[in-house]
Write a structure and sequence with these properties.
Length: 490
C-alpha cells in the first residue's frame, strides 16, 4: 500500500485545467483539499473537482468547481464522520482483496503479519525471479518515458540515471545479500481505448494482460516456482501519478488466467511526466509486498478500534515511509526486521555479554538478542547515513523491539496492542508512536558512554508484558561505518 500525508500534487481534470491539491490517504480512502483548505471531491458528472459539502456526515459534491469562489455555507477542512470513513475504507479494502478477505480479518491485514510476521500468500523472495512489467498508455495520455528507460531503471547494473541510487534489481540484490535476483521483462506500451479518467473507476488489468497474451508471450518464463502462477506483474501507466481510485499506486491480488497460468499479485504505479520523474522507491515498496509479502510498517490510522495515526517505522524502512526519501530515488534500506523475516541474512546472536562490532551496509547478517518468547526479540543494526541510508534523519545504531504477533497499527505500546517492529528511539521521545515526525536526529544511538539501554533506561528493554528481557547495552561508539557496542550483564 502506498500512503500520502498532506502532499501537494497535481491532478488532471476531464473538463478543466490541471489543479493542485493537498492529498491525505491511500488507495482505500483519501481526502483532497484545495491549497486554501477547502475539501474537494472529483465530480465525474462535471469532470472537474468541486467543493465538498457535508450531508448526513458524508462528503458530497456541491457542484461548484474549485476554480470559483466557495460559497459562504462551505467550511474549510471538512471531514467525513468516522463511521462513514471506516465503511468506505472497508468496502474498498474488501473489493481489492477478493482472495484474502474471507480468510483474514481485513481490518488488520496489512500491518499485521499473520504468517510469522509476513502477510499470507505466495512468496518468491529467493532465487531468480523474472517479473512481467507492462507499460500502459491511455487514449489521451501517452508516455514520454520509453521502454528502454524503464528497462534500465528496473534491471541495469550500476544504474544511476535521473538521480536514482541504483536499479530495482540492484536494490533487491543488495538487500537480500544476493539471495533474490529480481529482473523484469518490459512489454508494451499497450494503449487503452478510453481516456485516463475512465480507468480511475474501472480496473484495466485483465484487458491489458489479455492483449499481451494475444501478442504471443511465453508465460512459463514468469513462473519461477513452476506452479502455473505468474510471480510478479507490474503495470506502469503513462503520465504523472494519479492518486485516485484504481490508479493510486498499490499492490493486490488479481483473478485472471490464460493458457494454464494464473495471475496472483500485481502492482501498479505511474511512469511520471518524463524521465526526471523515474524513481525506484514506490516500485520497490510495492515489490516488497508482492514478492516477499512484507507488511506495511506504518500506521494506517483508520482501523476498527484504532483511529489514531502514528508513524510506525517512519523513514527507517522501505515498507514504512522510507520509499519516499530523496523523491523516491534513494529509498531507505529494508529494516533488519523484514530482511530477517525474508530469511536473507544469517543471524548473529548477541546474548553473550561482550563487545560487538557492527558494520553499516553489511546486509549478510542481522544482530539478534533473543528472549524467552519466540515471537519477541531485539535486532540491532548500524544505520550510518551512507548508501541507501544517505537520507535518513539519524545516524548510528538502531535497536528494534520486534514481536511478529504485533501490528504497526497499534502505537499504544500495551501488552496486547503494540507494534510488530518498533524503533527504540534513543532520545526517549516516542515521536514515531506519537506521530510527531517520521524520524529525527535523536532516534539512533551515537557515542554513548555508559549504559545506553537497560530494563530501567528510557527507552527501556522491557518486554511488552513488562518483564525484563535481560538486554543491557553500554558504550556505543561514535556513528561511523563500523561501530561497536557492549552487551553487559543486567
Ligand atoms: Zn505498502
Amino acid at each position: 500500500m502506498s500512503s500520502i500525508f498532506n502532499e501537494k500534487l497535481i491532478f488532471p481534470q476531464e473538463n478543466g485545467k490541471d489543479v493542485e491539491l493537498l492529498v491525505n490517504g491511500d488507495e482505500f480512502y483519501s481526502r483532497y483539499e484545495t491549497i486554501d483548505g477547502y475539501t474537494a471531491i472529483y465530480d465525474s458528472d462535471i469532470g472537474e473537482f468541486c467543493f465538498a459539502e457535508k450531508v448526513h456526515g458524508c462528503l458530497v459534491s456541491s457542484r461548484i468547481t474549485i476554480d470559483r469562489k466557495p460559497p459562504k455555507r462551505i467550511k474549510r477542512h471538512l471531514r467525513e464522520n468516522s463511521d462513514i470513513r471506516r465503511k468506505k475504507f472497508d468496502s474498498r479494502f474488501t473489493l481489492m482483496q477478493p482472495e484474502l478477505s474471507p480468510v483474514l480479518p481485513f481490518d488488520t491485514l496489512r500491518t499485521f503479519g499473520p504468517n510469522n510476521g509476513l502477510l499470507n500468500g505466495r512468496r518468491v523472495s529467493m532465487g531468480k525471479v523474472i517479473g512481467l512489467t507492462i507499460i500502459v498508455e491511455f487514449a489521451d495520455v501517452k508516455s514520454a518515458v520509453t521502454k528502454a528507460d524503464v528497462e534500465s531503471m528496473l534491471n541495469d547494473d550500476s544504474y544511476s540515471s535521473h538521480g536514482n541510487h541504483c536499479s530495482v534489481r540492484e536494490y533487491f540484490s543488495n538487500m537480500s545479500n544476493g539471495e533474490l535476483d529480481y529482473a523484469n521483462d518490459v512489454l508494451g506500451p499497450i494503449t487503452l481505448p478510453k481516456n485516463r479518467q475512465f480507468y480511475v473507476n474501472r480496473p484495466f488489468f485483465a484487458d491489458v494482460l489479455n492483449e499481451i497474451v494475444a501478442q504471443g508471450i511465453e508465460l512459463s518464463r514468469y513462473d519461477s516456482l513452476g506452479e502455473g502462477v505468474i510471480d510478479a506483474i507490474s503495470f506502469m501507466y503513462a503520465g504523472r501519478t494519479l492518486y485516485q481510485g484504481w490508479l493510486w499506486p498499490h499492490n493486490h491480488t488479481l483473478d485472471w488466467s490464460s493458457n494454464g497460468y494464473s495471475s496472483n499479485f500485481y502492482q501498479i504505479s505511474s511512469l511520471g511526466l518524463d524521465t526526471d520523474g523515474l524513481s525506484i522507491g514506490t516500485f520497490c515498496h510495492e515489490s516488497g509486498h508482492m514478492l516477499c509479502r512484507f507488511p506495511d510498517l506504518y500506521d494506517y490510522g483508520k482501523r476498527d478500534g484504532d483511529f489514531q495515526k502514528s508513524a510506525g517505522m517512519g523513514r527507517y524502512c522501505l515498507m514504512s515511509s522510507g520509499n519516499h526519501l530523496d523523491s523516491g530515488k534513494t529509498p531507505s534500506s529494508i529494516s533488519a526486521y523484514l530482511r530477517d523475516l525474508a530469511g536473507w541474512p544469517k543471524r548473529v546472536k548477541v546474548n553473550s555479554p561482550k563487545k560487538y562490532e557492527i558494520e553499516h551496509g553489511d546486509y549478510s547478517s542481522v544482530y539478534i538478542y533473543e528472549t524467552d518468547e519466540l515471537n519477541e526479540y531485539y535486532l540491532i543494526e548500524n544505520r550510518h547515513t551512507k548508501g541507501l541510508d544517505s537520507h535518513l534523519p539519524s545516524s548510528g545504531i538502531a535497536v528494534y523491539h520486534c514481536d511478529t504477533l504485533g501490528s504497526n497499527e497499534h502505537q499504544g505500546g500495551t501488552p496486547t496492542a503494540h507494534y510488530q517492529c518498533g524503533l527504540l528511539q534513543a532520545d526517549g521521545h516516542l515521536d514515531l508512536e506519537r506521530n510527531q515526525n517520521t524520524g529525527d536526529s535523536g532516534d539512533f544511538f551515537d557515542d554513548v558512554q555508559g549504559i545506553a539501554l537497560s530494563h530501567d533506561s528510557v527507552p527501556s528493554t522491557l518486554l511488552w508484558d513488562g518483564s525484563d528481557s535481560g538486554l543491557s547495552i553500554k558504550n556505543i561508539s561514535k556513528s561511523e561505518e563500523k561501530m561497536t557496542f557492549e552487551v553487559v550483564e543486567n
